[in-house]
Amino acid sequence: MKDLRAEQSEAVSVSARSLIGLRDAGESLALPDARIRAGESGGYLSAYKGRGIEFEESRPYQPGDDVRNIDWRVTARTGRPHTKLYREERERPVLFCVDFRAGMYFATRGAFKSVMAARTTALLAWSSHHHGDRVGALLFSERSHREIRPQRGKAAVLGLIRELVAFAQWPGPASPPPVVPLSSPLARLRRVARPGSLVFIISDFRLLDEGVERHLAQMARHNSVVLISIHDPLEAELPPPGLYRLTDGHRDALVDCADPGLRQRYRARFTERQKHLRGLCRRYGMSLIPMATNADLMASLRNDLLRRAAA
Question: Which domains does the chain have, with CATH numbers?
């Protein structure tokens, strides 16, 4: 009975100990480096945008300098043309945008989507640390959000894990919070994602409003963006025909799953959402990793990330 309770607890919540325990597994993951390829059929190949560059200094203009790098402020102040010099950042920023809205606290098989999101983030954060990259994040729910500035080192990963544990705890059947569209956190993410970052957006990608595509398009211009779409098998296909009682803790409903028209519309709605995500990836050079709540998380990530690293 104790083992059963522990197994059930791990399916609906995470602990700092369990996420720290993923360190060895995470360090065995190969993050995308030069090029990345989506894991869906057809493969959406996109060039990795490269590590960021930082302004280092201005010096007097010399013949052959790129005129696009002229420092107009220094030129105006001194009366002599000056050129901006840049240096390549030694560490790549790796940013995680993780969805902890109400719909993520759900699963009929495997673990809650919120738990899968937290574990996925921890694994990828440990991999980033192992490869010498800086780790940052934007965690959000309907009630709050937390921005973590990219930093290097084990302490940065442990700080992220503390926040993941706090966000991933199921808040219980409280009053329904106000709806937060995905475009809102993506707008914040655009402000903190520096050019050359590797950005993982981990969500079930529900409530895709018109601003989502605009923000993703702008972010993908200067960063490598990977969408990790988490879904429960029940969201893809209704259960066997029968009469089912559903509740969100506040309202109850009876659903007749024997209706073939309902089953077809339900399946089509999920398929259309996945098709829309694939289309976004194809259009803007992003990658897509689909993830089910009952999937082998480590195997799924290793297969997809190794394929991207080798592309």
Answer: 2-50+91-310 (3.40.50.410), 54-88 (no CATH)
